[in-house]
Give the backbone structure.
Amino acid sequence: MSPAPDHDAVVIGAGFAGLYMVYRLRQDGFRVLGVEAGDGVGGTWYWNRYPGARCDSESMYYSFSFLPDLEQEWPLEERYPTQPVILRYLQTVAERLDLLKHFVFGARVTSVRFDDQAGHWTVRAGDQLAVTARYVITATGALSAANWPRFPGAGLFEGEQYSTASWPAEPVSLAGQRVGLIGTGSSGVQVLPELARQAQSVTVFQRTAQFVTPARQEPLDPRFVALWKANYQEIRRRTKFTPGGIPIPSPVRSSGELSAAERTALCEEAWRRGGIWFLDGTFSDAVTSQEANAIVAGFVRAKIGEIVTDPATAEKLKPWTHAWGTKRVPVGSDYYETYNRPNVSLVDLRQDPVEEITARGIRTRSGEHPLDVIVYATGFDALTGSIERLRIEGRNGERLEDAWASGPFTYLGLMIPRFPNLFTITGPGSPGVVTNVPVAIEQHVEWIADLLGYAREHGRETIEAEPGAAAEWTAHVQAVANMTLFPTADSWYMGANIPGKPRVFLPYIGGLDVYRHRCDEIAAGGYPGVALSGPAGGLVAVAAPAEVQGTAEAGHDFGLRDRGAGRPVPG
Ligand code: NAP
C-alpha cells in the first residue's frame, strides 16, 4: 500500500481564491497546506503595487460575503478600493481567520506531478519544498503570469526597468526622471496619470488605442455606506444571482428600440456615472450587434476628441482596431486629460514601431527617445499562463502544456481530464475574469469543497473530469463567445497578446448566474461528467439524470440571446 500523502490538499496561491479555499477546506476537516510565491498574502494585490493601482469593482462589492462582522467594521471610504486598501483587507482576513499558519510563503511552485502508482500529487517549489497531497487546487489568479515582451537590446538599457505586475514594495522616486511607458491596457491607463504627476516627462508607447471609461473615483457618502451596511447580506445574496457579480440593472433596451436622441442621452448619462455604469449601462446589444457597438464606439471617440486638446494626439488615441468592449475596457482617472499635460507625449507604435532598446532609451523607426526609466505595463499570459507555469504533469506524465496545445480543455473551467484531483479556480472556461472576481471565486471554492466532501462521504478518493463532459463544456464556452463580437478582437481574452498562443476564447461569458445554476444542477444530480473512483481504483461513474444531460451541449445558449450575453464588466 502506498504511504498516505502529507496533506489532503495543497492550495497554490494566497489571494482571494487561495485564502478562501484554505479556510473552507480546513473548516471541512481536510489537512490543507497553502503555498505562495510572495512573502505575504494578497495575490494580484501583493504584486501589482504600481502607483494608481486600484480595482474597477466598487468597494462595496469587492470583498468576501461570508464575513458579516468584518463587512460591518471595514471602512468603505472611496468608490473604488486602492491596492493598499485591498491588500490590508486580505491581510486582515488572513489574520482574523488564523490562516497564515497554514501557508508556506516565498515558495514559488516549480512542478506539480501526479504519481499514478500512489494516486497522489507531488508539489515542489525548487529546493525549498516537496510535499505530497491527494488534491491540488490552483488559486494562482487569471492575470498573474506577467508578459515581458522581448525587445531587442532590452538588456543594454542603463536606466531602471519596472513592470506594473511586480512593482517594488518600496517607493520608486521618479522626480526629475524621463519615463517611457509601454502598454495602454488597464494597468497602463491607471499608472500613466501618476507617472506624469511625478516624473519630468513621460513618453507613452501605444500599440493599440483603447476605449477608456472614466472611473469617477470619489469619497463615499457615510449615509450611503450606513444604508448599504444595513442591507449588506441581502445585497450579497442578490449579487450571487447576477451575470457579472454586481447587482446593477442590466440595460433592457437594444439600440434599435431608441431614437438617436435617446441613445445619446443614455450614453451621456452612463458616461457621467462612469465605471460599470458605462460598461454595462448603454444598450442590451452593445457587444452583440455591430450597429449598436458602433454607436458606443463613436460616442467614446467623440469624448476623446473633446477632452484631448491636441488634435493629432486625440486622433492617435481614438481606437479603430477593434469593437468597443471586445478588449477589456480600462477604467481610468484623468487618463485622456493627462495627454494635455506639457510633459506627456504619445508614440503610436503602429505608425512608428519599436526597433530596439538602447543603452539610453527606446529607438523607434523615427528616432531615439532618451529615457531614464522604462515601465512595462504589457499585461499577462492570461488564464492559462499562471497554471501552465506550474509545470503540471498528470496521468502517465502527460504535460498540461501538451494537453492544452491547441487550447485549454476543461470541465466547467474547474477540472481537466487525465489530471485527476486537480482543480483550477478562475482558470480558462470559468466566468471569473469577466465578473466581479471575488463573487466567482466564492462560487468556485464552494463547489470544489462540496465535491471533495461528496467524494469523502462516498468513500471515493479520485475525482476526474470525463473527456466527453470537458469536450462539451469547452465547445459551449466557444459557442457562447461566438454569439458576441468578442472573438473579433486581438485581446488577451483570445490569447492574442502572447505570440504563439492558440487563438481561442478563454473565459466563459455566459454569465455567472447561468454558470452557477449549471454547477448547482450538476452537484444536485450527483456530479454527471465527473468520474469518482474508490480507493481500490475501480471507476465509479455517476450517470447524469436525464434532465441534466445535454444542457452543456455545444451551442445551447441557455436563453443568453435574450439576456445580452457577455457584457463587459470589471475583472
Ligand atoms: P493588457 O490589458 O494586456 O495591456 C497590455 C498593454 O501592453 C496593451 O496596451 C498591449 O498592446 C501592450 N503590449 C503588450 N505587448 C506589447 C509589445 N510587445 N509592444 C508594445 N505594446 C505591447 O494588460 P494590463 O493593462 O496589465 O491589464 C490586464 C488585465 O488585468 C486587465 O484587462 C484587467 O482585467 C486586469 N486589471 C484590472 C485592473 C483593475 O481592476 N483596475 C487594473 C489592472 C489590470 P495591445 O493592446 O496591442 O496588445
Residues 559 and 565 are 9 Å apart (CA to CA). Residues 54-56, 143, 149, 182-188, 190, 207-208, 328, 349, 377-380, 492, 497, 570-571 surround NAP (CB under 6 Å). Confidence is low (pLDDT under 50) at residues 536-571.
